Amino acid sequence: MVKIVRKSKAAKKLHLVFSSFFVMKILIKLLNLFIFFFPGFLFAQGGNKYITVHLKNETYQKGNLLTAETDYFFDSETGILVVSGTLPENHIKISNRFGEIKIYYPEDNKVAIKQNRFYSSENELIYYFFTNNYYDLGLSDEGFTVSDTRMDGNYQVTTWTAPISLNLISKVELVFENGLPVYAAYFNMNGNIIRKIYYYNYEIFSSFTMPMKVTQISYISENDSVVQRNTWSLMKELNTPGSGYFNFKIPEDAIVVQ
Predict the structure, then answer these.
(1) Which CATH topology does 49-257 take?
(2) Coil/strand/helix, residue 137
């Protein structure tokens, strides 16, 4: 004879509480996974839409120092990046996420137009930090794959193996501290480092975290190297365009050059 036991109202309520708690745990885990795999979504949905920042680039080689300064204007919603610079002459560069780039020279009213995925605004270093997509710094888009991940003290070291199509680079090592990239090393086919990049002087903004200084050392030969230091400053996050560059349009009568 089967005995049927009916649940009391208290038992039913307790069951509902535990069921709700279980569902909530699953939702929280799913949310964490979503944030991990799609960090840029949060940036696009919240925070400020427009970002401006000034860049000072210093290039040192063979005793010579070349300094160039540019201003960046980034629309996080459209992915359009406008850069105003003075070297080698006054110019305004406009790029989008589809790889179309236009470089306008106002003094001559000329414009150069190119189309290539490498010119995409999403390949800019600042894009990775503006959108919180700095876990690989664009390596996966170039065909690199993760081959090893290890801990070295407080640092996480991730090794990315280069695709076969790259003949000069065999792998790249990215080093993270507290979840942020602090160092990258590029190796040639012989296992020698040909480029070092240091990311430092991090600052926290409302929608992202950004290294305000990036130094790159490229080894041309055993006795020659090129050192580049990028210093970012005057970072601003805006809800509305704070500069005419965000809506800059190249004149229709501009002469197209190759």
Answers:
(1) outer membrane lipoprotein receptor (LolB), chain A (2.50.20)
(2) coil
